[in-house]
Amino acid sequence: MRVVLMGPPGAGKGTQAARLAQTWSVPHVSTGDLLRETVEKGTPLGRQIEETLAAGQLVSDALMAEIVAERLGRPDCRPGFVLDGYPRTERQARDLDRLLAGSGAALEKVILLEVPAEIILKRLSGRRTCPACQAVYHVDRLPAGAAACERCGSALMTRSDDREETVRRRLGVYSEQTQPVVEHYRRAGKLVRVDGRGSPDEVYDRVLALSQAAPR
Questions:
Q1: Residues 81, 27: contact at Cβ < 8 Å?
Q2: Would you please indicate which residues are annotated as catalytic (active-site) residues?
Q3: Percent of the chain with pLDDT over 90
Q4: How far is it, in rounded angstroms, from Cα 118 to Cα 122?
């Protein structure tokens, strides 16, 4: 299977992509992981990306295409992959189309996790992170008044990108950037819409069932 998993911040893309990849025995290709891996290698490309991210800028479409092309060109991706975090723009979608066409392959499905903005807002603004061990909690599942990590005892914090005003801004950017991508794949007959509400298990069951269904 060659699949792209899309959805707004907080929709659970990473969780669902990892489970699908395990089910289908193909790699879970996360662009966030790819960027970190490229930076850690210390190559000229890695240093360029590090400087871009340190300046608070987005990695260009051209650089992202280069990074994704290198990863999808590895032998373990020949049977397929679950791509998470790319494409984010219509140009990136067209770059991916050309890349796969050049290798004689094509995407089979683009799975779009749909979650209402208010649910996303509650999910992300309620997250608490341990700065020491990176454990993640949610206020709904923490004992009343709990403010320390259950693993290491460090004080929990709210990440800056989980603050309500930031989440609303991220959702606005997502909607503006990705709507053309959604339309691109809808026109291509590859888009599958999945209700992303509910527990991770409930969502996974829907994703798995609809990934076998005809796009709509």
A1: yes
A2: 13, 88, 127, 159, 170
A3: 56
A4: 6
